[in-house]
Amino acid sequence: MFRNLSPTVRNLIFINIAVYVLGGFLPQDLLSLHYFQAKDFHVYQVVSYMFVHASFMHLLGNMFGLYMFGSLLERIWGAQRFLFFYFFCGIGAGLLYMGIQHFIDFADFRRATEIVLSDPSSMHLYDYAQHYQVIALPDGNVNLDWARENYAEYVNRSQLAGASGAIFGILMAFGYLFPNSEMYLFPFPIPIKAKYFVSGYGLYEMYQGIQQYQGDNVAHFAHIGGMVFAVILLMVWKTKRNQFY
Question: Which residue ranges does the record assign to the Peptidase S54 rhomboid domain (predicted)?
Fold first, then answer.
């Protein structure tokens, strides 16, 4: 199996497996991507998060996607361009995910915290505490320090991990370059063209991201981010799709 892999793809798979196996000895919380306002955020996390996986199935799914589609792209582009594409999509996915967090997920909480810190009389601290309680209230002591710490604790809990953004970028590139290639999706015996599969998968991720059901801890907008940044880079490179079928 590994003999059919291109060198860069093989190395990426080995590194991801090694990081997962050594997970107990590595600072996973400091390698995953935190929200940029969190106390545990570090700039290097926009890269390191791509090598951290929450479970074996998470790792297996991403490495399977890299195995299926990555080597073909590396053979077309060469190692240097493929590696740039991989990290461009992965970093872009993380940045888009943080943007969604900033402008949508954390927006109301952040505005309420800013209001109560700037003018406590404008929003009763106890009402604020009850509405946005995410850590235990201090005994009878609801104050500005608590509001500040509460927000910091809340945003620090958000972490993004996994190579999914980069893998979805690779999937998008495959559908873009090989739109009429036929794929079989288990357990369905009917082939589907890559362009329809990739488009459908992207719409599904968009729908799931908008709905974001309770208990769903999948970063759907990171997946979308990988696909978006893949398209951007492919357009910059002015790749001619009719050369690849």
Answer: 42-100, 159-235
